[in-house]
């Protein structure tokens, strides 16, 4: 049962819209163009590219949209019990001061926004998930960050592992996603990218394609 054929990895991807100080978010452009880019390039064997959604750069006010989006990953799969395979949520966010890509190992249960989000929310030292207790609580990805970074470094990308996804919307979304992943038996990963001024669009598109390839190779 479900053993026929190679195992499949389904990767769903999110990016973010613009926000305070970043009028053009590279992750919105990457995510909107990813399906077309991967079609031309050819999908790695064993990869299913699922939904590609762009999220509001907002915390609490955008939670219904976030939960609805996360739910998409498991909704379709429940009807396909024969070969469910591995499901991964890949979240892309921009770090406007960065000079390289960063694969985030963890998220912290703390929302301390340096500026209001796109819905005007500016929490300070508030838990992302109240039922998870302390703002010091950490959730880690179950994916091998060091292995992923090593593989992408070998391909020539300027990339680093990171234990600090900030305390803004990126960390907020990642924390919710890691909790959702744990509850639903799937995996979640957050990757920070620089602005296109720092690393151009074509290189970033190629980077995400390479990242997808690496994620498939792990399974």
Describe this protein's structure.
GO terms for molecular function: pyroglutamyl-peptidase activity. This is Pyrrolidone-carboxylate peptidase. 33% of the residues lie in helices and 21% in strands. β1, α1 and β2 form a beta-alpha-beta unit. The model has no long low-confidence stretch (mean pLDDT 92). It is of the alpha/beta class and 219 residues long. α1 crosses α5. It has one domain: Aminopeptidase, CATH 3.40.630.20. The protein has a six-stranded mixed beta sheet with strand order 2-1-3-8-4-7, with helices on both faces.
Write the layout of secondary structure elements.
Blueprint: E1 9-16, H1 26-41, E2 47-55, H2 63-75, E3 86-94, E4 101-104, E5 106-108, E6 138-140, H3 145-154, E7 159-162, H4 169-184, E8 187-193, H5 201-217
Parallel strand pairs: 1-2, 1-3, 3-8, 4-7
Antiparallel strand pairs: 4-8, 5-6
Helix pairs in contact: 1-5, 2-4
Q: Whole-number radius of gyration?
A: 17 Å
How many domains? The number is 1
Would you identify the CATH H-level superfamily? Answer: Peptidase C15, pyroglutamyl peptidase I-like
* Mean pLDDT across residues: 92
Q: Shape, please?
A: globular
Helix vs. strand class:
alpha/beta
- Biggest beta sheet attributes: 6 strands, mixed
Instruction: Give the topology string: H per helix, E per strand.
Output: EHEHEEEEHEHEH
Largest beta sheet: strand ordering: 2-1-3-8-4-7
CATH C-level category: Alpha Beta
